Fold:
Amino acid sequence: MTTYKVSYVVQGQDHPGGIINLNHRPSRGEMLEIGNVTYEVREVIELMPPQQGFHYLHLTCVIAEEG
Structure:
């Protein structure tokens, strides 16, 4: 099973970001729910080549608009 170790930052907010594990590779434009907040992925960067079933990514996100 592939695991994506994903660090993320939130643009334009006083938000600390974080690190999460996902079972799929997120893509630009995807809506990603973390906790009770929905984010839109703006940028996906591979940090290093995959190793032993782990992929290491960094995301830049914004809080998704409601409605």
